[in-house]
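Q&A log
Question type: sequence-to-structure
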Amino acid sequence: MKKLFLYVFVLSFLSSCISSKKLTYFQGEPAEKSDLYRLNNEPYRLQVNDVLYIDIKAENPEIVALFKNSESSTTTEGGEGLYFTGYTVDRHGNIRIPYIGDLNVLGYTEKEVREKIEQELSKYVKKVESLFVTVKLAGINFVISGEVGSPGTINLAQNQVSIVDAIASAGDITTYGDRENVVVVRKTLDGVQKFKINLLEIDVFESENFYVKPNDVIYVAPLKQKTWGFGATGLQTFTTLVTVFSFITTTILLIQTF
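Response status: OK
Response body:
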């Protein structure tokens, strides 16, 4: 009986601890630059629900002011402020600009949208060369949940957000998070897509899904050790197992007494 208890104790201890290999990011050696580097650095193409920051400047500020949503849209604001003063891509792929009306931007890059706006403004402004139009995506908005420090909806005011940026902005993955099983759910023009990313491997930097897209949903699954309820470290597991086996031994002794 004692040998059986010892065997079960050792087996449970070894299987319940979280090894350092499960917690160490970017293991291995980086591969040579591939074609994925080019794909990951291609400009983003706008989708429905994206929010744009658009600023227009010219010699005559009174004229260009007519084409702006509001004066506050020319200032630098966070994601919440730009929700009201920015230009949201509607479900038809259009943004609505005063006097210009609906302008289709679905699938366009920031540069292409800027050129379209300049072309429309040239109908109203005599000195086209004096126009200076700025078009930027109003940050990358995404949702992150699961085994992270601070789950929720996050907006990062960056042109590109990698999966590493996203995880870091959410307070990193907890000890019980499965770094091999980070799931990204993405809604595209072709439908909903689902990807799995392994953050333990250095090859993640070469993944075509390394960069987060606006409105992505990121989920970090828990390790099986969390379900077992033992502990993340060897000391925690040892303490838990000692408590459990002490309870079992005490129960057996009481039964034998009676």
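Response note: Residues 82 and 138 are 7 Å apart (CA to CA).
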